[in-house]
Amino acid sequence: MDRKSGPSLIERAAQRLADIKHEQAAEPTDPPPPSDVQAKPTEEDGGRTARPSDAPTAAVGPSRARGGARNITIDLDRLAAMGMITPRAERSRMTEEYRVIKRPILLRAFAAGEDAVKDANLIMITSAIPSEGKTFTAINLAMSIAKERDVYVLLVDADLSRPSIMSTLGVKADRGFVDLLEHEEMSVADVLLRTNISNLSVIPAGRPHAMGTELLASERAGQVIDEIAMRYSNRVIIFDTAPVLASSEGGALLKHVGQIVLVVEFERTKKAEVLGALDMLESCEYINLILNKSRTRLAAGHGGAGYYGSYYSSDG
Ligand SMILES: Nc1ncnc2c1ncn2[C@@H]1O[C@H](COP(=O)(O)OP(=O)(O)O)[C@@H](O)[C@H]1O
Ligand SMILES: [Mg+2]
Q1: Ligand 1 geometric centre to CA of 194 (Å)
Q2: Which of 94, 131, 307 to mutate to test the pocket of ligand 1 (most atoms within 8 A of CB)?
Q3: pLDDT, tens digit (0-9, with 9 covering 90-100), for 184-233
Q4: How many whole angstroms from 159 Cα to the centroid of ligand 2?
Q5: Rounded to the nearest whole angstrom, what is the distance from the C-alpha of residue 136 to the centroid of ligand 2?
Q6: Pick from 52, 68, 102, 211: most CB atoms within 10 A?
Q7: Is the C-beta atom of 256 inside 6 A of ligand 1?
Q8: CATH number of 9-54+64-315
Q9: What tens digit of pLDDT does each residue of 165-176 get?
Q10: What does the H/E/C string look like for the chain?
């Protein structure tokens, strides 16, 4: 199907949201989160327990524990208060929506045999223009996937010009992805942070860098991403990136990932902008569209994230 002559994205979105309402009614619940989420102190975090009552309210930095691993504690109460998903068992509309969103992404990420898709466990979150909700989506998707048993998630802040994963998580970090790209002697382990969610790790963006696009397009970036992909082949790796129409950073990352999540802010992003973004991304075969911040009858309530289907470049 030629996407430019088919039903408009917004029409497909409306139809998809209507379908989702029916699907969600019949949706089974997630298995309970791993029992050590939140409650148990881990050996690496020096016994610091993430009880809600002692969760920090201000941003705190990583602590270095025995063995050199660096750990951060994400304040899950604060995240929940921001309306975001946490790996606890609570039910919310957002949790339900992300259950629908993550399912096809995970199926593709871990498809085996004939159905296997190269690098499908490497997922780039992007949008056409700024502030559509990439970081919001990246964190919610990471949290939602971390609710799955036996699935490990690595969340990478690759939006080098406007990084905001760490500030949203309420954690300070002095170095990250950009430092790893710049310094050949550094390894992934130097910038990877374990969290109080046992199956979620984070790589911060690092300090701001004027040459973000060049670094992401460099040979070194290819090596780093290959290292991440090989070392963590059993993991879903989520890259929060820059908006494609506003920056060339995302384009540089594109060739390394197997799936894209294109976040579209409902009623703000113009159809031409969405189509422009799809054109820029078309070398990736698997693009998942998320309609974000919808406040329509179909996704009643405030600020929802409706999933409206996959767009396959190969259809065009
Ligand atoms: N579905 C949503 N519901 C409510 N607020 C949202 C939603 N998505 C994004 N936001 C808010 O919109 C703002 C921009 O989102 P953000 O994820 O930072 O955008 P981006 O990373 O694309 O620039 C943030 O304040 C974020 O909390
Ligand atoms: Mg962002």
Answers
A1: 24
A2: 131
A3: 999 999 999 999 999 999 999 998 888 988 999 999 999 999 999 888 88
A4: 7
A5: 7
A6: 102
A7: no
A8: 3.40.50.300
A9: 999 999 999 899
A10: CCCCCCCCHHHHHHHHHHHHHHHHHCCCCCCCCCCCCCCCCCCCCCCCCCCHHHCCCCCECCEECHHHCEEECCCHHHHHHCCCCCCCCCCCHHHHHHHHHHHHHHHHHCCCHHHCCCCCCEEEEEECCCCCCHHHHHHHHHHHHHCCCCCEEEEEECCCCCCCHHHHHCECCCCCHHHHHHCCCCCHHHHCEEECCCCEEEECCCCCCCCHHHHHHCHHHHHHHHHHHHHCCCEEEEEECCCCCCCCHHHHHHCCCCEEEEEEECCCCCHHHHHHHHHHCCCCCEEEEEEEEECCCCCCCCCEEEEEEEEEHHHC
